[in-house]
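dude i think i finally got it to work??
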Amino acid sequence: MRTIFQQAKGKGAAVMDAGLFLKDRQLITARVYGDEEPIPLHRHNYIEMMYVIHGNVVHRIDGEELSMHEGDLLMMNQYVEHEVELRKPSDLVLFLVVRPEFFDIPFQMLQEPSEIRNFMVNFLRKNNPSPQYLLFQKRGQTDIRNLMDNLILTTYRDDGNDSIISQYTMGLIFLHILGHSGNLIQNSSQNHKDVIVKETLKYIDTQYKNASLSQVAEEFHQSLSGLSKIIKQGTGCTFQELLMRKRFQKATKYLVETDLQVEEVAVSVGYENVSYFYRQFKKRYGMTPRQYRVVHSQGFGNRKNETFY
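look at this
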C-alpha cells in the first residue's frame, strides 16, 4: 500500500489512479487492508467503496472523524479527500475500486428516487465536482452480509460473466440498503453532523427519563467530547441543557394536567433526587412546583396545548 502512495505523489493529497489497480476494461477489483500503517490523505479518480469485515476503522474527511464498525459500508465519489486508520492489528477492511460505468446496471435497478440513485446521478454525469459520500451503518442488520460475500467472491474470481453478476449483486445490495434507509448517512461530514443532532433531539424527546450522552455516543461511534461539540454547534446548547429543558417541559405538563404528587412528577421525568428537582425547578420558574401547579392549573382547559419552559 505504501508503494502505491509513493507512485501517486503530488502536491497536496495524493491522487490514486484507477490504473494502479484495474486492468484494461476491468470495472471493479477488491483489495484487503489490515495490520498496516495508516493510509495518508488522498483522493481517487474512481469510486471507492469500503466494507468493514472485522473491527473498526476511522476515516478523516474534511478534518472530521467518521467511524465505521463491522458490517458498515462506505461509498465515496472521486472528489473525497480522506485518511484511513485501523484501530487494532486484527481489524480488516475491504476496499472496492470501481469505475463509474460499473454502476450502469445498479442504476437501472433503482427505479425510484433515492439517496443512492441521486448519488450515482452526480458521479455518472460528472456534473457535481464536490466531495460526497454515503455511509450505511449496519446497526444490527444482517441481510446485506451474504450479498457482500457474494460480491467479494465474484470480484476476486473475475471470470467470464462475473462482472455482470457483480453489477446485479451491487444493485441488490443497494435495494437492501434502501430498505433500512434510516441507517444511511449521506453527502458530507456536515450532513453527518446534522443527522447526529436530529437523532439526539429525537432520542431526548422520547427517552428523557433515562437519556444519557454516553448512549448516543455509543450509537454513533463518537467520543463524548466530539459528540458534545457537535450537539453544541448544532443546537447552541449542551446535551444536559437540552435534556433538562425537556424534563422540565414534561414536569410542568404533569403538574398542570395530572394529580401526581410532586415527588412522583420528579421521578417520572428522571430525577430520583427530589431535592435537586425542587431547586432546579425554582431556579428555572421562580416558584416551587406546588406554586406552579396552583398558578397554572386555573384555566387549564384553554391552556393544555401550551409548552412551558
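Residues 110 and 266 are 51 Å apart (CA to CA).
im so relieved honestly
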